[in-house]
Design a protein that fits this description.
26 strands; four-stranded antiparallel β-sheet; Leucine-rich Repeat Variant; five-stranded mixed β-sheet; alpha+beta
Length: 617
């Protein structure tokens, strides 16, 4: 509590200054070490300074490689999107295990407006709008093997400074996921693609396959999502810069707020936040509560960044599976408790896990590492968000939050043999599992066919008692292309709703499930008692040709008990709308089968609109 009085004093000075002077007071900064020492964390936790200026500045994003090193994207251009190629990537390493970096490499220093980074498949994946790059570095020695390769271009740069395509993360299914703000919507394609053949993406979550080099939208909406992570069942979550603050991300969903998006004009209604609370108090003038005691008790403010579902092995067990996010205005890390609710989740505010005394603290990225400790980056500046004024370009910090003193980890996941990588699938820290999976996927692209670990993974998938362990095996077998369609189809009758649900999604990855599988889908849509399974069926139908959806949709729409679910009526509608638009007679059949009032209303409304919608609604 040593910082409580200074922080309250600073708040009081700010409020007084706001009344006397329209220009904000630039509060005196804390040194990097002082900022770490004065952070308030629960009993038993420790905060160390991993890196600070001048070794690091403007840390907009970071990721952790197979050796436990941090690859940090420095946004030196921000907020000027036309400032030239001044952004860079640095590598920070703690070689002696004391919690602070002691080795630093400048990897690349000619990027233009960087906002996201991940490592894998022999190089670095970088969002540097308007381009999405791959920079080769096969041995990860910190020296690029060649110039950046543009994988996609056309990411939006036309609007504000911070509502952009951003953060990367490897998903459990072997895809690279990214989040994307709505203001700078994008027209995406490979370099040279004409405008008419580009795909418009208006914000939300997208993904890119690192082997097949396929891009696709995953979910549309929110305002400015910044960071994505998955729980042990592979369910995705993002936090949002600007209210509301947290969403359960479902493939094919449309999320609030609406914003009159052209590609979602027939969504009619969008899935809301899962949070049962706000982290700010004044909903009419959202900045009015910043720094007040009431807002402090609520959680600190309306702007969030850096979603993390903690699945490490250092923090106490009560934090496992919970969601954490930086609260930018509140100078803290918020903690929300997740609980299943029907087909999805609710999130309830729990005590904040860290509160910073430093007046310039601006948390952006959160991630747990190989020893279970959590790294948090600090933009360290005055003003709002990442900040449009950006008065302090020389600052930046990364802290590490641990419980007690974890044993330092030294190693290189990339150098383990197949048997060792498979064994890591039982590690209590999911960091090890995710890295082992990605390395196995990389190796599978070089040598197709059965690996030494396939049999063991299949044994875990088919016989293990723990659902999370079985899912780990499933995702790896799928990403390495070692799971037959027959075995995957067999999981449609598994006792676990999570295995059944994921079997549905993976069978529809190529958008061409067999006729026999589609028949099982129809049976499941009629009889499966799990709302989660019905949710995945609704998502999967969006990936099928319109005529192949009808029988499954008829069965789904007959579930009157789904009318009050937070996701199912809308997900059913998103899959149904193209069918209604394409064929009036089929639309009438669906209307007759439908027992969900909201969807009946939407079907009728869409039929009245006509096949060609014309102007936006």
């Amino acid at each position: 509590m040593r910082f409580a009085l200074p922080l309250l004093l600073l708040v009081a000075l700010n409020l007084w200054g706001a009344k006397k002077n329209p220009q904000p007071i630039i509060e005196k900064p804390f040194t990097p070490l002082e900022a770490a020492k004065t952070m308030q964390v629960p009993k038993g936790f420790n905060v160390t300074l991993f890196a600070g200026e001048p070794d690091i500045k403007q840390p907009i994003a970071f990721c952790i490689d197979d050796r436990g090193r941090l690859w940090v994207a420095e946004a030196n251009n921000y907020p000027d999107k036309k400032a030239g190629k001044k952004d860079r990537i640095i590598i920070l390493e703690d070689t002696d295990g004391d919690g602070r970096h002691d080795k630093r490499i400048v990897f690349y220093d000619k990027l233009e407006y960087v906002s996201g980074i991940e490592v894998g498949f022999g190089g670095v994946w970088v969002m540097s709008i308007p381009n999405f790059y791959f920079i080769p570095d096969k041995d990860y020695d910190g020296v690029p093997d060649g110039e950046p390769v543009v994988l996609l271009d056309g990411f939006g740069t036309h609007a504000n400074a911070h509502n952009i395509a951003n953060g990367f993360a490897w998903g459990p299914d072997g895809w690279l996921y990214g989040t994307h703000g709505i203001t700078n919507w994008s027209l995406l394609g490979k370099p040279g693609t004409p405008k008419a053949k580009r795909r418009r993406f208006e914000g939300g979550v997208w993904r890119y396959h690192p082997v097949r080099h396929v891009w696709e939208p995953f979910a549309i909406g929110t305002t400015n999502p910044w960071g994505i992570d998955w729980n042990e069942y592979g369910h995705a979550f993002v936090c949002n810069c600007v209210d509301p603050h947290l969403f359960h991300i479902i493939q094919g969903a449309h999320y609030e707020p609406a914003r009159n998006r052209p590609t979602g004009r027939f969504a009619y209604e969008r899935i809301p936040t899962i949070a049962d609370h706000l982290h700010f108090t004044n909903t009419k003038t959202i900045r009015a509560g910043i720094g007040t005691p009431e807002e402090d008790a609520a959680g600190g403010g309306h702007v969030h960044s850096g979603t993390m579902i903690y699945l490490g092995d250092n923090w106490p067990a009560k934090y496992r599976g919970q969601v954490f996010m930086n609260n930018i205005h509140g100078r803290r890390i918020n903690h929300d408790r997740l609980a299943r609710n029907g087909s999805g989740y609710t999130a309830t505010h729990a005590p904040d896990v860290m509160r910073a005394a430093a007046p310039w603290f601006v948390g952006v990225t959160l991630a747990y590492g190989p020893d279970g400790g959590v790294y948090v980056s600090d933009w360290s500046d005055t003003g709002e968000c990442h900040h449009t004024r950006n008065t302090q370009k020389h600052t930046g910090r990364i802290y590490k939050i641990t419980y007690g003193k974890p044993k330092p980890w030294k190693g290189d996941i990339g150098k383990l043999n197949t048997a060792e990588l498979v064994k890591l699938h039982g590690h209590p820290n999911d960091w090890h599992v995710r890295h082992a999976r990605r390395v196995l996927q990389e190796r599978a692209t070089l040598a197709l066919g059965q690996t030494a670990g396939q049999a063991e993974l299949i044994r875990v998938l088919t016989t293990h008692h723990d659902t999370a362990r079985r899912l780990r095996a499933l995702w790896t077998l799928h990403s390495t292309r070692e799971l037959s369609a027959k075995r995957l189809a067999g999981l449609l009758r598994d006792e676990s709703e999570h295995l059944r649900a994921w079997a549905i999604q993976l069978l529809c990855e190529n958008k061409k499930p067999s006729e026999r599988v589609r028949a099982v889908f129809e049976s499941m849509a009629r009889t499966d008692k799990s709302p989660l399974v019905r949710l995945y069926l609704a998502s999967a139908m969006q990936r099928l040709p319109v005529p192949q959806r009808v029988s499954v949709l008829k069965a789904l729409l007959a579930h009157a008990e789904d009318s009050a679910d937070q996701n199912l009526p809308l997900m059913y509608w998103y899959a149904t709308e193209p069918v209604v638009a394409a064929d009036k007679q089929t639309a009438l059949q669906l209307l007759a089968a439908c027992k969900i009032p909201k969807v009946r209303q939407f079907i009728t409304r869409r039929m009245a609109t006509g096949r060609d919608a014309g102007k936006k609604e």
